[in-house]
Specification:
heterodimer; A: 7-stranded mixed beta sheet; 4-stranded antiparallel beta sheet; 25 helices; flat; B: alpha+beta; disordered N terminus
């Protein structure tokens, strides 16, 4: 048993690409090993800002020869088949194949022998193939070379069983090949010279001594532990942020958390602004006080152990933050001198989309829509809805949103509050982009609901009107997200909104139906149940549609539901089978059955039950549970009917047709509640 | 690293920063060139970068380039935004394997002690829509502040490069503010405090920022600038036809600057903006192609 150690050292790899690249490297090498018939016990991959590393344990030192036989076509088969066989097996001609009698005739066989030999001989090729196949989100060439890698590749450690593998990477051009070796480098600033390594344990230990923590999980732990203890000394709490932690762990080989201070003068700027400044621009962690409010301390993670314990580094970072926050504070103070309402004319200068006019025009449309929608949202007064809709985009022309575009809406809310506009208006301005995704909060206040819906419906209707519809993976205007947002707001708040009133295009309703289906399937609703309800068509009230789906799902889960479905299946199958024989049958049995033609009690009692059913009334009342339950009354008479009555009586065509009419009526009745033919068993 | 010049004392003022960087990169084998004598938005527009990045010939050069960004003018009232500032640029083509070490050597030369500071290479892909150029690299951070833009050119003028140039761009004012611990650019010592006539950056440039901001935002004659743009565009195309890439490229630079001024004056709408950028890019591409033809022929 032996170990493979591979390290690819390069210039700094973007943080966001490291984890994926380490996984890909592991997968590609493991695939190569398996394809070469090399078993191993375990493979682990690691990434730091400068290196990808992989260790594979438990590889055999050498392999046996592997014999592989492939059966080809029959002897004398057409030439095309023979050529295909030869190509597939990698043979030049039939001289290299064998004829064999299998008992079912003579067939060609290819006998392929994969030569075994020292594992080391195979590894070089496997590494080469894996490196060529590893695809970075963006890659580049450097120097005079042609090789593509994420950033210039500097050295390759490739050791098997403690020995350097023969091999090299050729960057091309006039550049020297990078020979596989046993030497790497430590931390860029805290280590000097090369490190010779003999295997993974030695490698990891020497790296640590050279100030490189190889495992990203360990770097994350060091950051968290270090940051937490700094925070507790300062009596603040670290604001957890998994995404930021991942990124920061990808920016450092030797994490050194340091605690910095935000000048008190900035603490009246909205906390969202401080957090965005710190996180997106500087990769600092925010901290909170006991009461949960933002504290004036932050954690920066350095990649260096400084002689002065980080005083200069902390001071430098505080200064950078101060400069950034000075801008923010400047905007905060300046912006509030102009009322949101007075900013509206400036929206005329911002193009929303070349073919859809300016933001001012968009706001006009949103305000009109929001007022219409408000009529369907209980508690949404028209005045505040219109005011909020008119002002919802005004923050786009503030200095703060210019500097921090990701805070659109949030900033508008703060400015509305400082103008002392009604709370509901301010909240609606802040809420109207939400929900931005499945995990984002969904507006629930009436005014917010109306404006948030109007914002999304306008985008959908407008882009639809100029033919900008999402296709496949292309959705540049995030219309899928807008549709899902509408669905969430409507469904979670149970808003009775007739969507069709707002759509001018039928395929927009279909687009919604598709989104809703996807969403329900993701929530675990049976797809056939969804299909059965959607097949009714014409439903644009999502709340009613979902109530029907839920009722059907639970009905089908009940004993009565299952039995009735069986009965429905029998009725429908007979009618369908007969329809196949007689294309005009559908027309002939469209009307109700004629009771005077009935010959058996079971026919009478079935028709009587059908007539007495109250499902239509229940459907009108939107009591879908009761509508489904009422259908279960059909079960006894239907079962009795099938027990006692023969439908396809051969000698009495009129009687047969009448009985088919009865069956068809069962089908039609049930289909008015949901299309039961879509339900699978 | 041949041709090492004698170690200079750590810079204490703006001009010593420039001199130190020039000395350092001269020691790395770079030609020390002078600024290109036309208005341009960044050091990248200098022919020593845009054109020399193309073609099969090696090229090491460094220079200061006054950079004009009319829109960034703040009438001298913002402590770190200027419509005219200086970039120091080093370009090494093909990029040597130790280019990052050489760059770090320059930080040491200007007095950034890596035993005290935190230097980080943060992903930053560079793209110039007007030059049809892009590359991969980093922003280099010192204690959280961007001090350098580092780019490996992959394409220039829409043409894939033969040899990859490593481009290192220092924003001199920002770097100086950090080194000399000044809160505003105008307080930077331009020359040494011990000089016979010690002056600050503000003494030299504040009035220029005030007047040029007024020009950029209020007084630039837009009709004239539109005309200049059209003239330069026409002249550039004509010179490309004549296979004179260098004069043609100067017209491209003129068009680009006219566009920047028009943009600052706010007379170009969002949709028009894109089409102006594309028009400049077309000129840049044509010039680059014409230049490349001369290089390949010469090689």
């Amino acid at each position: 048993m032996a170990e493979l150690l591979l390290e690819l050292l390069s210039e700094e790899i973007p943080a966001r690409m490291q984890a994926r690249a380490a996984d890909d490297l592991k997968r590609l090498i493991c695939d190569g090993l398996k394809a070469a018939g090399l078993d191993f016990i375990d493979a682990r991959a690691f990434a730091t800002p400068r290196r990808l590393a992989l260790v594979v344990d438990g590889l055999p030192v050498a392999r046996e020869d592997v014999r592989d036989e492939r059966r080809g076509p029959r002897v004398g088969a057409p030439d095309q088949a023979i050529q295909g066989f030869l190509k597939g097996a990698g043979l030049a001609s039939l001289d290299q194949a064998e004829k064999r009698d299998t008992g079912k005739g003579e067939f060609w066989f290819a006998v392929l022998t994969k030569k075994g030999g020292p594992t080391a001989d195979a590894l070089t090729g496997i590494i080469d193939v894996a490196m060529k196949a590893l695809s970075w989100p963006k890659s580049m060439k450097w120097g005079s070379g042609t090789l593509m890698w994420v950033r210039p590749l500097q050295s390759v450690v490739a050791l098997f069983d403690g020995k350097v593998l023969a091999g090299e990477i050729v960057p091309g051009g006039a550049m020297k090949p990078i020979a596989f070796g046993d030497a790497t480098r430590g931390h860029r600033f805290l280590s000097k010279g090369e490190l010779k390594v003999s295997g993974f344990a030695d490698y990891a230990a020497k790296l640590r001594a050279a100030h490189v923590v190889l495992d990203p999980a360990e770097r994350k732990k060091i950051i968290l532990d270090g940051a937490s203890s700094l925070c507790s000394e300062a009596q603040v709490t670290l604001k957890a942020d998994e995404g930021l932690l991942d990124e920061v762990a990808g920016l450092v080989e030797w994490p050194v958390p340091l605690l910095g201070t935000i000048d008190a003068g900035f603490m009246d700027v909205p906390p969202e602004v401080l957090i965005v400044s710190m996180k997106t621009h500087q990769r600092y962690f925010a901290t909170t006080k006991k009461d949960g409010m933002l504290a004036n301390r932050f954690v920066v993670v350095a990649n260096n152990v400084a002689r002065d314990c980080g005083k200069v580094i902390t001071g430098g970072n505080e200064r950078v933050l101060r400069a950034r926050l000075s801008d923010a504070k400047f905007f905060w103070d300046q912006d509030r001198k102009v009322r949101l309402e007075d900013r509206l004319p400036a929206l005329k200068d911002i193009v929303f989309h070349a073919r859809l006019g300016t933001q001012a025009e968009r706001v006009g449309r949103i305000a009109k829509l929001a007022a219409e929608i408000a009529g369907h949202v209980p508690g949404a007064e028209r005045g505040p809805v219109e005011q909020a809709a008119l002002l919802c985009k005004a923050d786009l022309v503030t200095g703060m949103v210019g500097e921090f575009p990701e805070l659109q809406g949030i900033i508008g809310r703060y400015y509305a509050l400082s103008e002392e506009l009604p709370m509901a208006v301010a909240e609606a301005i802040g809420d109207h982009y939400a929900p931005a995704g499945p995990n984002d909060r969904c507006p629930s206040a009436p005014v917010s609901i109306a404006v948030a819906l109007a914002d999304k419906l306008d985008a959908l209707v407008s882009f639809w009107s100029i033919g900008e519809k999402p296709t496949g993976s292309r959705d540049p205007f995030a219309l899928r997200r807008a549709a899902l947002g509408v669905i969430r707001i409507v469904v979670e708040n149970k808003i009775r909104l007739p969507l069709r009133n707002f759509f001018k295009a039928d395929d927009l309703m279909a687009f919604f139906a598709e989104r809703l289906k996807v969403q329900m399937r993701e929530k675990g609703v049976r797809h056939d149940v969804v299909d059965a309800v959607f097949a009714l068509g014409n439903e644009d009230d999502l709340v009613r549609l979902l109530a029907r789906v839920e009722a059907l799902q639970s009905f089908l889960g009940s004993e009565a539901g299952k039995n009735l479905l069986t009965a429905y299946g029998r009725a429908a199958n007979i009618v369908r089978a007969e329809e196949k024989k007689d294309k005009t049958l559908g027309v002939k049995i469209a009307g109700g059955p004629d009771p005077t033609l009935f010959e058996q009690d079971e026919e009478h009692s079935l028709l009587e039950t059908l007539r007495l059913l109250k499902h239509t009334k229940y459907i009108e009342e939107e009591n879908f549970v009761a509508a489904m339950d009422s259908l279960s009354l059909l079960r006894v008479p239907v079962d009795a009917f099938f027990d006692k009555v023969t439908v396809n009586v051969t000698d009495k065509p009129e009687l047969r047709l009448n009985r088919l009419k009865l069956l068809n009526q069962i089908r039609a009745t049930m289909d008015s509640v949901a299309d039961f033919s879509k339900i699978e068993g | 690293m041949s041709d090492l010049s004698p170690a200079r004392a750590k810079p204490t003022c703006f001009q010593e920063l420039i001199l130190t960087l020039q000395d350092y990169w001269a020691g790395q084998g770079c030609l020390i060139l002078q600024p290109f004598d036309m208005e341009m938005g960044a050091g990248t527009f200098h022919t020593a970068t845009t054109l020399r990045a193309l073609g099969p010939k090696p090229w090491y050069a460094a220079y200061v380039q006054p950079s004009r960004r009319p829109k960034d003018g703040r009438y001298g009232e913002n402590p770190n935004r200027l419509q005219h500032y200086y970039q120091f640029q080093a370009i090494l083509k093909p990029s040597p394997p130790d280019i990052l070490e050489r760059y770090l050597g320059s930080l040491d030369a200007i007095g950034i002690d890596t035993g005290l500071h935190d230097i980080r290479f943060v992903e930053d892909d560079w793209e110039s829509p007007t030059l049809g150029a892009w590359g991969l690299g980093w922003e280099v951070w010192c204690d959280g502040m961007e001090i350098t833009q580092f780019t490996y050119f992959q394409q220039v003028g829409g043409i894939e490069v033969d040899l990859v140039a490593g481009e290192i761009t220092y924003g001199l004012e920002r770097l100086a503010m950090y080194l000399f611990d000044k809160k505003t650019v105008y307080e930077l010592p331009y020359n040494a405090a011990s000089s016979e006539v010690p002056l600050t950056y503000g003494d030299v440039f504040l009035q220029n920022e005030q007047e040029q901001s007024a020009y950029n935002f209020e007084h630039a004659d837009t009709d004239m600038l539109f005309r200049h743009f059209a003239d330069a565009e026409k002249e550039c195309a004509r010179l490309v036809e004549k296979r004179l890439p260098l004069p043609a490229y100067e017209q491209c630079i003129k068009a680009s600057h006219a566009f920047n001024l028009l943009d600052a004056r706010g007379v170009i709408s969002v949709t028009e903006r894109q089409s102006f950028i594309l028009r400049v890019r077309d000129l840049a591409k044509a010039c680059c192609q014409a230049w490349l033809a001369t290089q390949v022929k010469a090689a």
